[in-house]
Design brief:
27% helix; 15 helices; 4-stranded antiparallel sheet; 607 residues; single chain; globular; membrane; alpha+beta
Length: 607
Amino acid sequence: MTLYGDNQVSDDRPTVQVTAVSWPGEEEPTTAGGAAGSPRPAGGRPWWRRGRVLLAGGVTAAVLAGMVGTGAWAYAGDVPRGTSVLGTELGGRSRTEAAKELRAELEKRAGALNAPLTVLVGENRAEINPSDVGLAVDVDATVAAATSAQAHPVDRLFGSRSVEPVVTVDAAKLDAALRTVLGSQGRDMTMPAIIFTGTTPKPVYPKPSLTLDAEQSARVVRAGWLAGQPVTVPVVEKNPATTREEVDRMVAELAKPAVAAPVTITSSKGSVSVPPAAIARALRFSADDEGKLTPKIDVKRLRTALGSKLAAIESTPKDAGLTISGGKPKVVPGRAGQQLDSAALGRDLLAVLPKADGRTVTGELKAAEPELTEAKLAELGIKERVSTFSTKFPGGLSSPRSQNIIQAAKDVDGTIVQPGETFSLNAHTGERGYAQGYKDAPVIVGGKLVPGVGGGVSQFTTTLFNASYYAGLQDVEHKPHSFYFSRYPAVIESTIFWPDLDFKFRNNTPHGVLIDTAYTSDTITVSMWSTKIYDSVKTEYGPRRNITTPKTVHLEPGPTCIAAAGSNGFSQDAYRVIKKDGKVVKREKFSWTYDPEPNFVCGPKPS
């Protein structure tokens, strides 16, 4: 670069300086009149000056010719001269030649590139195979990067540069492998919630998750793979979007005022008073995947809570349904109705709940058609029983535990699950409290049996889970008990607890599914009706292993103490084997480890 005054002019050509020479015996004129020196020949220019110009022109032409040759060398090929990848010179080559050269280099390094990669996740250390997570060098993308990278023209002549290879990875597979390494160090996010016990709002405070960020993990592993050194994958803490303080604010500003007094709904056909208990049932606080808590009115639950009260101003549409009669499904016709506009009612009701005065909502009546008509029902193909499962319960129908089981069965009976729909037991029954007909019965809390409202519903959950399991429906969410109970099949069972533990299955068939429940004085039965698509669904068990024996724990006697004989803990695998057209089309593994249930004694330890 040469500087001229205040302007910078870039000239990438080499600077050539040519010095004029004087021939011996010749003197250059020194005056304008030509007094010193020889006379000028015709044409006005001395012969010696013409010769000097010719000499300078020749030198310049030679230099320019050299520069053209050097420039052609510097700019030959697609990849700039002096460019290397992984120590391999690719400069001056075409894209095809550069790709071939790079692949040859990668083949030489195949042993190192395919060697297990050591990863450090928290306090855990493990090795993963690069091929299992899609770790590879993208040759074409790397050559493109080397080609498109800008090089200064002088660097093309004399410089060198190294281009980092483009590394690819399957982020989903890598995340799954790293989460296995993370293991028990991680924890799920505790979502914020506000739940009502009767008309008393209770906050569930958020807690951050300790987890992996898939995008960040992929970036770190891509950067560290070729170095041949252990890669430290960061474990990140992810906080829910709603804070503890915001939960408290929602309780104070909405949940408590909401149930402080009734709300009146008026319409062209009259008015209805909504008591605090019905408001508590309908007011829901739902958190999304990011943990943002949002209040809303579940109008369907509001209608259920109000029962016959709404009959004074609206007529509820009724879905067509099915009942089992004579061993076959029988259609129960639906009917149209006239209802308050649900969207407007939910919005307007939510708006007045924080107020102490002016708690009146004007509802608009609209024609309401049933969601499930007889025509739609006929298209679902619910025609035969595809599975059934029963469990036994002690105590007869008069015990609180048995009553809870039967109440849950009644809540679910007759439910139709559409194709592709996911059934949630918690979402279907809602909170199982006293107002919903549930009683106090033993539940497992903190590793021991204590009285709790809704105890025993886990037995219905297990029965429902097995009915869906043997129907071949997709398991979405379930969790076995921490202790093994002999009245349930090992591993293939499920507990439930509002609102943290749920049971969900998905209807992954092209047909509708009808849930039919029945009970006797000591059994509960759940059957699934649909169109049979599998030959059979069976369970194969692996042996029990890691047997652990219970310890004896003495508890303070009293009404909250429940004695238990204790049971062994163990680990076991169960395999769901599904056959169709005489062939196994699916084999799913279910595994669980049971803790030993202590031998709980209500009384002091003997001295």
